[in-house]
Amino acid sequence: MSHPWQAWCAGDLQLATDNRVEVRFAHGRGHVVEVQERERGYELTSLVVDAAVAALSPYACVEALWQRNGSARLVGFQRDAHGNIAARSWIAKAGLVAAEFQRMVRHVAQEADRLEYLLTGADEV
Q: Positive or negative, the Cα torsion across 25, 125, 34, 18?
């Protein structure tokens, strides 16, 4: 099933699956953002680290989440019920244009990648 936002994925934004966009950064790193359509907008989510990685250093993860949530703009970080850490944002459909959608997807991917790097030094796209 095709969604209107999928046509906006080009260049550094590549459609990976029906609802996932892979964002490639100039420095070789990248991140995947999941796009979930809601009634009035889109929820953008990007996995930072999975539960197994988060469990290796739980106190560092809690501190990093606290700091990032206090300083990040437009993106929030949280642990889900399984212990995974994700970056999350929401964008309204009303008046949405390609450039704004692309900017938000890139922003979520950049914030998730930044926290992933701080926690692990790795790039697990």
A: positive
Contact 15, 29 (CB under 8 A): no
30-57: b or e for each residue (b if 16 or more CB lie within 10 Å)?
bbbbbbeeeeeebebbbbbbeeebbeee
pLDDT in tens, 6-39: 999 988 899 888 899 999 998 888 999 999 999 9
How far apart CA 4 and CA 64 sit, in angstroms, is 35
Cα distance between residue 109 and residue 76, in whole Å: 12
Mean pLDDT computed over 77-99? 93
- For the chain, give the percent of residues with pLDDT over 90: 55
User: pTM of the predicted model, to two decimals?
Assistant: 0.89
What's the fold here for domain 4-120? Yope Regulator; Chain: A, (3.30.1460)
Domains in the chain: boundaries: 4-120
